């Protein structure tokens, strides 16, 4: 059976500070290896989010518009 995928984005609703706070709050709750988790973030947040998720099973995608 295939692993389930959960992917989400927040459009432009978070700046870097809000994105950092959100990731720090939620990553320990969802990094369990049972599902593939992907955060699709705006380009303004990619650098910070990638650094925060290093060493986790959570993936980062980019929004294109």
Distinct helical segment count: 2
Q: Low-confidence segments, ≥5 residues, pLDDT <50?
A: none
Order of helices and strands: EHEHE
Q: Mean of the pLDDT scores? A: 89
Helix vs. strand class? alpha/beta
Strand content: 25-35%
Q: Using DSSP, what is the number of strands? A: 3
Helix content: 25-40%
User: Nearest-angstrom radius of gyration?
Assistant: 12 Å
The end-to-end distance, rounded to whole angstroms, is 33 Å
Main sheet attributes: strand count, strand direction, barrel closure: 3 strands, parallel
Spatial strand order of the main sheet: 1-2-3
Give the overall shape. Answer: globular
Structure keywords:
65 residues; alpha/beta; 3-stranded parallel sheet; 26% strand
Give the structure's gist in a few sentences.
By secondary structure, this protein is of the alpha/beta class. It has helices at about 15-30, 45-50, and strands spanning about 5-10, 35-40, 60.
